[in-house]
Every structure is written in C-alpha cells, then in structure tokens.
Here is the input.
Amino acid sequence: MSVVAARLSELGIVLPSIAPASGTYIPHRLVGSLLFISGQIPRIDGVEHYVGIVGEAISPEDGYKAARLCALNLVARVNAALDGDLDRVLACVQLRGFVNAPAGFTGHPAVIDGASDLLIEVFGDNGRHTRTALGAGSLPRGSSVEVDAVFEVAPKA
Here is the structure.
C-alpha cells in the first residue's frame, strides 16, 4: 500500500467518485511536472452539499466543512489524473479558495482553512501550499465554496 493510501486509510477517508466535467473544460491538465485541477465544489456522489451564502444560510463552521469536501474532491481528481498513484504528489503548490459570501464578510481564510487542513492531513508537508482566499458574489450551483489547485508531481515510474 502506498504511503498516501495508508494515510487515507488511517484517517478513515474514502475518496468520492468523480463526475465528468459539467461544462466546456477539462477537470485536470498536466503541464510538465505541474498538475492543474479545475475548481471543485462540495458535491459528493452527484449531490451538492452546503448550498448557500456563508455568513447567512451557511455558518462559517459549515463553510469550513464545505471547503474540506471541496479538497476531498481535489484529492479524488488528483488520484484519477495520476492513475491512482498519489505518492507522485511532490507538493501542493497553490490552492485558491472562493467563498460565496455577502459584502462585509471577512472570514474567508478561516473557511478555506478546511481545504488547507485536509490537504496537509493527506499529503503531510507535501500538502503545504501558497494560498488565496477570496469572496465571491455567487458560485456555481449555489455552492458555498469552490477550490482549485496546482500540484507538482513526479514523472510516471
């Protein structure tokens, strides 16, 4: 069993199934050693979770949980892109998080910590990343959070 697979098992994390892209884009692209993962929302098995505006319909604590689900989908996408070999991840280079929030909301970083924390739990120090946390007036499907990421990966063995 790979190191990351063992860590997922220890954490009790099961990667969700992933759906095909829902628009005119591709879910990931490998350019050299950089793997770009398209935006992920808190959708599990085709069902959206945490729909609404953080700070209104969704609490910041639930926003954190939504960001965690988004990151879980990121990991599932990376797994698919790397043919199941998550040990190829050398680093999460950058994470961008978007929070569906009202004007005046300032808790974006704490919400996106949900995604950051999950990536560090799964990949250890390789999961540490640069980050941007932004507010958005709306997000696809009414989602409370969306995240995308760039990973550095080792060549296929």
User: Anything to note?
Assistant: Strands lie at 28-31, 34-40, 43-44, 47-48, 89-100, 130-136, 145-153. The mean pLDDT is 96. The longest strand covers residues 89-100.
